[in-house]
């Protein structure tokens, strides 16, 4: 296999890992930016999405099942997110540490519930045949490079979601209200914006996107009660690295973390790569504590 | 009475800032709230806008009891708010700031038009020129004009103004004062204004309330009384 082909393959892998991080971190970043809360049960939204994909495929087998599973997972996770926001997070608002603890508890409850319902081993979601191809190169410097369709699919879904959320935030009235509440909650409320409802919508949107990410995860490996855990830690890293709540920052940070992991794995094994990733994040935050994108303007200084 | 406060109390944690304030604003009037720094003028305005909670007493607006109505509900009932320090949304453009003001129109029946009324740009022509600039980059005077325009976008029945000329360069102060007079005469707006300058308060408002230590200690008419009579309550 040609060296260039290998490198390009790793970069491609980096981007597809980054896509998963974006989808997992988007909700965390949005709700942290708006409400300053960290939802420890966010990973379980991924898990829920995975199990919903599994269940949907039992009901709707066949090649298009996965396309049905995606809206089902989105709506299911968004609904659970809305319930979580209404029953736990809103009641603990302005108490970040309590929220952290309470949502961690919710996370454990959801994991155990999944274990009771589906077993600890995990269930398998089989990718439809139209995602079973790979694009392979056999000549030239790209000889030996293979790009699996599932990974291309992940990239496309992440790009669509990111584009959709960016449009929603930047071009719609709802998005304008989200940005207004983000910048000055009491004044936005005094101008007639129902900030409570905005919180609820954004939180549900974020968990819904995590549910979608869960469907994608199900295509890559078995869905287990703890499947969310392995993605939530890098997602937290991404949110911190990105600048706590910035959409652009989250995207850039996802790509940074994805590429860093993929490229470092050329030289070292997976666990050392994890250590180096953490070292990289610590170093980066030391140099640039505000993250990739800092929120700053004349009116905010002073 | 368009607005009625009945023994209103407010506190920051353990320290009480407003003590049983009774106050009313009649439809069509302009009322000036005056007093030294730190006597509770801003707190009083904030409690009317719903930014600060009432810890006691009642608030009625247009005949409805809004005591426990949250801030967005009060805005939708027709209370427009121009806060102290302007508080424009720094990362939103001028147009976007004005559009947020339209949120107060949600669920309202007597709304003339759903867009940003043209008289706002007529009052503040500068806003047209800078419509696409980020509000955080504007000068103080421009931000103040934007904050007033943003409150007007919600077509309020009562406009709360908290020191609209504070910290603004003198020639812009005159523009803003002229615009406020036009808001009164042309739009017939009912206004409650916190104002440090007695001269402007006297020429602008029909009546006044003087605050001291969280209470209204004197009220009266600017038409029949002279500003000199109360200047000792305001000046240091």
UniProtKB/TrEMBL annotation, chain A:
GO terms for molecular function: transmembrane transporter activity. Keywords: Amino-acid transport, Cell membrane, Membrane, Transmembrane, Transmembrane helix, Transport. One of its GO terms (cellular component) is plasma membrane. It is a multi-pass membrane protein. The chain crosses the membrane at residues 12-34, 46-66, 72-92, 113-131, 151-169, 197-220, 232-259, 266-287. Its main location: membrane. It is found in: Cell membrane. Pfam families: BPD_transp_2. One of its GO terms (biological process) is amino acid transport. Belongs to the binding-protein-dependent transport system permease family. LivHM subfamily. PANTHER family: ABC TRANSPORTER PERMEASE PROTEIN, BRANCHED-CHAIN AMINO ACID TRANSPORT SYSTEM PERMEASE PROTEIN LIVH. This is ABC transporter amide-urea permease. It comes from Acidocella aminolytica 101 = DSM 11237.
UniProtKB/TrEMBL annotation, chain B:
CDD domains: ABC_TM1139_LivF_branched (cd03224). GO terms for biological process: L-amino acid transport. Keywords: Amino-acid transport, ATP-binding, Nucleotide-binding, Transport. Residues 3-236 form the ABC transporter domain. Pfam families: ABC_tran (PF00005). GO terms for molecular function: ATP binding; ATP hydrolysis activity; branched-chain amino acid transmembrane transporter activity. Belongs to the ABC transporter superfamily. This is ABC transporter urea permease. It comes from Acidocella aminolytica 101 = DSM 11237.
């Amino acid at each position: 296999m040609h060296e260039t082909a290998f490198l390009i393959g790793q970069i491609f892998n980096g981007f597809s890992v980054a896509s998963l991080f974006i989808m997992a971190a988007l909700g965390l970043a949005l709700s942290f930016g708006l409400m300053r809360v960290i939802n420890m049960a966010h990973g379980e939204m991924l898990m829920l999405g995975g199990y919903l994909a599994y269940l949907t495929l039992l009901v709707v087998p066949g090649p298009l099942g996965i396309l049905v599973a995606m809206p089902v997972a989105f709506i299911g996770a968004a609904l659970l997110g809305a319930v979580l926001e209404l029953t736990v997070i809103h009641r603990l608002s302005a108490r970040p540490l309590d929220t952290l603890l309470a949502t961690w508890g919710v996370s454990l409850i959801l994991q155990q519930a999944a274990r009771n319902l589906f077993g600890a081993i995990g269930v398998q979601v089989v990718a439809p045949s139209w995602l079973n191809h790979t694009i392979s190169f056999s000549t030239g410097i790209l000889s030996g490079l293979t790009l699996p369709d599932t990974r291309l699919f992940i990239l496309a879904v992440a790009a669509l979601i990111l584009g959709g959320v960016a449009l929603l935030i930047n071009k719609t009235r709802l998005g304008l209200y989200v940005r207004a509440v983000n910048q000055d909650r009491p004044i936005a409320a005094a101008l007639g914006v129902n900030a409570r409802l905005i919180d609820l919508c954004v939180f549900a949107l974020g968990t819904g996107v995590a549910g979608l990410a869960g469907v994608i995860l199900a295509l890559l490996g078995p869905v287990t009660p703890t499947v969310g855990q392995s993605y939530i830690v890098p997602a937290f890293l991404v949110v911190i690295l990105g600048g706590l709540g910035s959409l652009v920052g989250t995207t850039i940070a996802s790509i940074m973390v994805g590429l860093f992991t993929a490229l470092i794995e050329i030289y070292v094994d997976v666990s050392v790569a994890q250590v180096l990733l953490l070292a990289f994040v610590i170093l980066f935050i030391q140099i640039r504590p505000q993250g990739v994108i800092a929120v700053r303007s004349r009116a905010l200084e002073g | 009475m368009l607005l009625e406060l009945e023994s209103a109390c407010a506190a920051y944690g353990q320290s009480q800032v407003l003590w049983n304030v009774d106050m009313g604003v009649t439809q069509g009037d302009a009322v000036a709230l005056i007093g030294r720094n730190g006597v509770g003028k801003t707190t009083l305005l904030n409690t009317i806008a719903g930014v600060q909670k009432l810890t006691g007493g009642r608030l009625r607006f247009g005949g409805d009891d809004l005591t426990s109505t949250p801030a967005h509900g009060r805005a939708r009932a027709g209370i427009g708010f121009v806060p102290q320090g302007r508080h424009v949304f720094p990362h939103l453009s001028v147009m976007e700031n004005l559009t947020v003001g339209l949120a107060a129109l949600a669920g309202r029946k007597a709304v003339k038009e759903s867009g940003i009324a043209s008289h706002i740009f007529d009052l503040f022509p500068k806003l047209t020129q800078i419509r696409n600039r980020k509000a955080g980059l504007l000068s103080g005077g421009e931000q103040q004009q934007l904050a007033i325009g943003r409150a007007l976008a919600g077509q309020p029945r009562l406009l709360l103004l908290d020191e609209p000329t504070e910290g603004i360069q003198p020639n812009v102060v005159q523009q803003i004062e002229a615009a406020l007079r036009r808001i009164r005469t042309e739009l017939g707006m009912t206004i409650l204004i916190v104002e440090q300058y007695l001269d402007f308060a006297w020429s602008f408002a029909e009546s006044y309330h003087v605050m001291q230590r969280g209470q209204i200690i004197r009220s009266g008419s600017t038409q029949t009384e002279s500003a000199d009579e109360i200047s000792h309550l305001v000046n240091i």
